[in-house]
């Protein structure tokens, strides 16, 4: 599809664990080597001069792919992170979305002068034109179904990257992302992903307590993401006459599994990332899940609730539940339970309580903006000549959520190896806005195939 412009000046193997069920540092290194992701960084010759420079004073040109709310927010944070950044290119599916984002960003008193968009592009292939428009850094914030292709194109072009979560919506996409991560490391490209809790100082301090043995032997982890519906699907009667299936679905992307991955993968993936973080990115052995749809989907095909039960080789159990519904109890909460205490995350300050209810540890300090911190770290690493690369969790935390979703869809026990090696691709074979693509109905446990 054309993209008119308008000027706007492995497979991963399980490991043995240490006495408190958390992998040791040496096991973590072995895990990375086995996965093939811990590739040594190659010399930066042939890549942008900003990679090898020890001190960079020139402006860094930034391109934004996906100009909705999250993308516009990422652009604002990128411009705030480095006063010598300039937003020069923006892409989305149509002119109105791009124009709205550029107008909003350029109107900011804080960084409006840094918005100098010469390339405003729209269409499904506009991402490639942004990546190849002369930018140094690319912000990837389109719907997750597009992310593997966008990430590969950015890495192939040698650009530094901020990549939103999740990494993909299916296993073939995850494997593509892992290959892109390996290539980014080999090229010494900065790649920071949108798992923002890893950039939160109070949560980081709490996880350090777990890794240091403050909970004793880990027993279980209960994690919830209960919230309201995110982007409810409009009825078919609201669809403009003549609009193609792909365009209708892209404009309502949250409601289609191939684009969003479903609620467990798109939103509760933050909880999946915390689960993996607690276990130093060791995957579980297997998962059994339940899920379904309480409110009519209006033609969409995502569930509005899940509960996944992950089992680790040592018997450690993790329960991840999410729900998107109105008028219900809401809470993004984590309870990490051990023989010597429980870590509470999500209500007030992170704290560890002993079995008799006494406070063993509580975080004290001023919480900083984790969304801004991601970009501060990204751009500081580029300027220092030591690009930050977010290691394995972009792919593996996303796969954990996909594993939980697929266990619910199929009604079967799903192993990590099955989740990783699934050949089921959710994307349309013809990626064109006018293309016909009838999305499958809601998954039916016991009938839906996921591998």
From TrEMBL:
Q: Where is the Gfo/Idh/MocA-like oxidoreductase N-terminal domain?
A: 60-184
UniProt xrefs under Gene3D superfamilies: Dihydrodipicolinate Reductase, domain 2, NAD(P)-binding Rossmann-like Domain
Q: Which SUPFAM superfamilies match?
A: Glyceraldehyde-3-phosphate dehydrogenase-like, C-terminal domain, NAD(P)-binding Rossmann-fold domains
Identify the keywords attached in UniProt to this record, alphabetized: Oxidoreductase
Q: Where is the composition biased (Polar residues)?
A: 1-25
Q: Where is this region: Disordered?
A: 1-27
Keyword Secreted recorded = no
Q: According to its UniProt record, what is one Pfam family this protein matches? A: GFO_IDH_MocA
Which is an annotated GO molecular function term of this record? nucleotide binding
PROSITE patterns in the record, alphabetically? TAT (PS51318)
Instruction: Quote the EC number.
Output: 1.1.1.18
The name on file for this protein is Inositol 2-dehydrogenase
Q: The organism's lineage?
A: Bacteria, Pseudomonadati, Acidobacteriota, Vicinamibacteria, Vicinamibacterales
Q: Which gene encodes it?
A: iolG_2
């Amino acid at each position: 599809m054309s993209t008119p412009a308008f000027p706007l000046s492995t497979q991963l193997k399980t490991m043995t664990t240490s006495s408190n069920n958390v992998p040791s540092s040496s096991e973590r290194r072995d895990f990375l080597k086995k996965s093939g992701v811990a590739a040594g960084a190659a010399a930066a010759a042939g890549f942008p001069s900003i990679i090898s420079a020890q001190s960079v004073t020139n402006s860094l040109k930034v391109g934004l792919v996906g100009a909705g709310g999250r993308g516009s927010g990422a652009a604002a944070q990128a411009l705030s992170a480095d006063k010598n950044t300039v937003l020069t290119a923006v892409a989305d599916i149509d002119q109105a979305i791009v124009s709205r984002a550029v107008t909003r960003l350029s109107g900011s008193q804080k960084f409006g002068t840094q918005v100098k968009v010469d390339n405003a592009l729209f269409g499904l292939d506009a991402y490639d034109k942004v990546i190849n428009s002369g930018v140094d850094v690319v912000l990837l914030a389109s719907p997750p179904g597009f992310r593997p292709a966008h990430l590969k194109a950015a890495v192939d072009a040698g650009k530094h990257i901020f990549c939103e979560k999740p990494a993909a919506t299916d296993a073939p996409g995850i494997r593509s992302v892992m290959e892109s991560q390996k290539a980014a490391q080999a090229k010494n490209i900065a790649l920071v992903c949108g798992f923002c809790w890893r950039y939160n100082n109070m949560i980081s301090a709490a996880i350090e307590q777990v890794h240091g043995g403050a909970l004793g032997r880990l027993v279980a982890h209960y994690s919830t993401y209960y919230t309201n519906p995110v982007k409810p699907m409009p009825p078919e009667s609201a669809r403009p006459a003549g609009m193609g299936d792909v365009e209708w679905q892209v404009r309502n992307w949250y409601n289609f599994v191939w684009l969003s991955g479903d609620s467990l993968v798109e939103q509760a993936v933050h909880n999946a990332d915390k689960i993996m973080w607690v276990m130093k990115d060791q995957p579980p052995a297997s998962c059994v899940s339940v899920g379904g749809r309480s409110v009519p989907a209006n033609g969409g095909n995502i569930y509005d609730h899940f509960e996944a039960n992950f089992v680790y080789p040592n018997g450690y159990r993790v329960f991840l539940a999410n729900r998107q519904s109105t008028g219900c109890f809401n809470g993004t909460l984590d309870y990490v339970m051990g023989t010597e205490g429980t870590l509470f995350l999500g209500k007030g300050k992170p704290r560890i309580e002993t079995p008799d209810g006494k406070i063993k540890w509580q975080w004290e300090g001023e919480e900083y903006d984790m969304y801004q911190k991601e970009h501060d770290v990204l751009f500081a690493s580029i300027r220092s000549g030591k690009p930050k690369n977010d290691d394995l969790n972009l792919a593996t935390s996303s796969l954990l959520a996909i594993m939980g979703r697929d266990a619910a869809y199929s009604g079967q026990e799903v192993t990590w190896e099955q989740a990783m090696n699934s050949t089921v691709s959710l994307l349309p074979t013809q990626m064109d806005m006018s293309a016909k693509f009838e999305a499958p109905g809601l998954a039916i446990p016991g009938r839906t195939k996921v591998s």
